[in-house]
Amino acid sequence: MASPNGGDDFESSLLSFEKLDRASPDLWPEQLPGVSEFAASFKNPITNSPPKWMAELESEDIEMLKELGSLTTANLMEKIKGLQNLAYQLGLEESREMTRGKFLNILERPKK
């Protein structure tokens, strides 16, 4: 067992003061060719304008994106299930209305 005073000596013996030079391609070869150029392209954006898809959003849409982004995974899954149920209910309602329209003959084409 190590003595109480020896604990600091042991930890300091584990420290390394070696300086690693990452500039050498021989010591640190690029693992995936082209990755550094790809990463560098995102550091200096060409313009400060928002992306095209973001320019078409209204403030309500942005607020909804922020709201959905702040949800936990479980809450997001609940929201998605609710939307799926809503879409299913709308489909059933549309089917009933189409059937009703068929029986009322409002969807027939006028005869010439």
From TrEMBL:
<dbReference type="GO" id="GO:0006355">
    <property type="term" value="P:regulation of DNA-templated transcription"/>
</dbReference>
<dbReference type="GO" id="GO:0070176">
    <property type="term" value="C:DRM complex"/>
</dbReference>
<protein>
    <recommendedName>
        <fullName>Protein lin-52 homolog</fullName>
    </recommendedName>
</protein>
<comment type="similarity">
    <text>Belongs to the lin-52 family.</text>
</comment>
<dbReference type="Pfam" id="PF10044">
    <property type="entry name" value="LIN52"/>
</dbReference>
<dbReference type="InterPro" id="IPR018737">
    <property type="entry name" value="DREAM_LIN52"/>
</dbReference>
